[in-house]
Amino acid sequence: MDPTRISPPAGRTTESLGEELPPPEGAYLVLAGPGTGKTTLLVQRARQLLETGALGKSKVLALTFTNKAAAEMKARLSSVIPDAEAHAFIGTFHAFGSHVLRAHGHALGIPTDFVVYDDRDQLALLEQLQEQGEVPSGVNLESLVHAFSRLKSRGLLGELKQHEVPDISVSLRAMHETYRGALRAAGALDFGDLVLECVRLFRERPQVLRLYRVAFGHVLVDEFQDTTPSQYELLQMLVDASAPRLFVVADEDQLIFEWNEARLETLNRVCTDFKAKVIYATLSHRCPPNIVEAANAVIARNRFRFPGKPEVRSKQVKVEPIRVYQADDERGEASFVAATVNELRSLGLRPAEIGIIARARRLLDPIEEELVSAGIPAARPSIAGLGSSEEAEAILRLLRWLQNSRDEQSARQVASILCPEASDVFESAVRAARTKAIGVEAALAGESTSEDVASLHRLVQYVARWRLLGRDTQRLLAALKAELPPLFPDEGDNEGAREEAGRILDELERLRQGMSATGRIALTDFLLGLPQLVSAGALAGSSPRDGWVSLLTYHQAKGLEFSAVFLTGLEAGIFPDFRSEKNLRRMEEERRLFYVGITRTKSRLYLTCARNRKTVHGSPLERQPSPFLSEIPAELLENAQMP
Questions:
Q1: Is the link from the previous residue into 576 a cis peptide, with omega within 30 of 0?
Q2: Collapsed DSSP state (helix, strand, coil) of residue 138
């Protein structure tokens, strides 16, 4: 790709838009650097539209990249406009797609109570299909899930025919059709379907599209650089290009999802398709001057950027030196990180203010072990921060079963944990449910009522009652807190399960409160929000008072900030990844990841590497420092010593 093609029209530069917000009419692309207040800017824009009456009878549609960003935007807007949620839809592209499909998806044969499958559900479904011989035995199922996701991000694999998409193999399309049929039989969609099917609905039912164009008079988009082709197509449908009212915030230097089909070229398209005017926001409220200088020096090496883009500047004054530590091996690196974290805690930092970031999850293993050994609370992101316990899995699966009675995968998981003695009866009911095209609990009603399956029938009775509360998650969670924990086996290896179930339900209630300022949210919307919430939560037990040190990959760290950040495993071949050495575009995305990592800190930054590190196969290998380290001006770096 020719980098000169990445060039929007010249725009004006501002430290902070503040009262300089442009008029409601027209399209605007705000290129905002890290820490420049993107969320604040979007809230200000929404507030401007709502308070000035510029919307008339229509509403604001604000589309975000994560549920965390949506929840934060809702909370901030509601703090200044109490009834804001009545006049705005704030959520991810996927949440909006779900909202549309639950209201109008029946026109495509999609049930209103569809459940959304995540990666694990997709993999489990494909494993089942492979066992039944409907997917070839030699196919790598994880790669297949990834292939489906990427093609859907490109806007493919919907109802299109083979001759319309010649670059998709016949075998891949056949496997997808088999998978798609199994999804429909389960009353399910996957995440890619939420946008893809919404686009198809608008294309095939233009009267539905007109409803939403009238309903939403202004569209805001956060993290626009991460928009996929299918999401951009949805945006094109919603916004009238001849008279656009569009406000998008982006930063091409933080585009780190090209593997999911996000492209820099999309920023050019918004300028040509909607004649968007460009505004540069340059003042970072987060990062101190030396961090900004280091980040600017690194990212300036990329060719695929907007020419003439002004550098980010810092509002802060206080500076802590950027410290570099090279250990003998990964254990030495882990010891340095743990000792330094303890030193930071002695200076008054809470564990929750510290983030440790690596290019791959496995690089965090020795660091996590060292932190645990030192008694430092630490955790990795989990679904909604609930951890990976059997109780968390059962409760999340139960919520999905309550949403959709045909979700046999979730029903099976719940039954295996709460009623393990009745597994044979459950499988018999599943087969009957498939044959009769009914829900699992309806099939269970016709099974034996012998003593060994009494717990299963009791569970089914509870499920029927709980399902009636699905329109109000607050009431549902209250009922579960009162009635669900006693259903968990709590003896022997399962001792403490009931207490853990109660803790998880308490955490779910806290998350519910954060999702909706009005306090009322349907189970379908609540569940859609959970998978994308990134929160370093407890792996077990109660929350420590000062939180946990967060162990993250660079992609997980996007959008977060900490008082102290450790960027670990900074060695050639690991970061940047060895596959990027001969691929300029991939190398530049690796550099953007490093830029994102540097700019997560509000104060202290530690860069660590090792002279020797084991490979994925366990063999020691001599390493060289990452070339990214040499891209930071030497005068900004200081060699660190073991505390």
A1: yes
A2: coil
| Cα–Cα distance measured from residue 138 to residue 151, given in angstroms and rounded to the nearest whole number | 21
CA separation (Å) from 47 to 20, 51, 307, 347, 449? 13, 6, 32, 40, 59
pLDDT digits (tens, 9 = 90+) for 536-546: 333 333 456 67
Q: 636 vs 93, 320, 593, 604, 610, CA distance in Å?
A: 40, 10, 20, 12, 20
Q: What DSSP assignment string belongs to 551-562? A: EEEHHHHTT--E
* Environment class of 298 (CB within 10 Å of its CB; exposed 0-12, middle 13-18, buried 19+): buried
The contacts of residue 324 (CB under 8 Å, 6+ apart) are 606, 607, 608, 629, 637, 638, 639, 640
Report the distance separating Cα 291 and Cα 599, nearest Å.
7
Secondary element (H or E) of residue 164: none
In angstroms, rounded to a whole number, what is the distance separating the alpha carbons of residues 639 and 632? 13
Torsion of CA 533, 510, 93, 240, to 10 degrees: -140
Where do we find the tokens 């717990």?
455
Q: Which two tokens stand for residue 570?
A: 């900074």
Assign 410 to helix, strand or coil: helix
Residue 10 contacts residue 47 (beta carbons within 8 Å): no
Comparing 7 with 351, the larger pLDDT belongs to 351
Q: Identify which of 510, 451, 426, 411 has the alpha carbon closest to the alpha carbon of residue 188.
A: 411
User: For residue 207, what are the CA distances in angstroms to 107, 202, 218?
Assistant: 12, 8, 19
* Side-chain-facing half-sphere of 67: CA atoms under 13 Å: 21
Instruction: Specify the pLDDT at position 327.
Output: 97
Instruction: Give the residues across from 577 on adjacent strands.
Output: 573
H/E run at residue 260:
none
| Predicted structure pTM score | 0.82
Positions of E strands within 363-445: 378-379, 381-383
User: What was the pLDDT predicted at 138?
Assistant: 87
Q: Going by C-beta distance under 8 Å and a sequence separation of 6 or more, which residues neighbour residue 262?
A: 225, 226, 227, 228, 255
Alpha carbons 537 and 508: distance in angstroms, whole number: 12
- Specify whether the CB–CB gap between 208 and 214 falls below 8 A: no
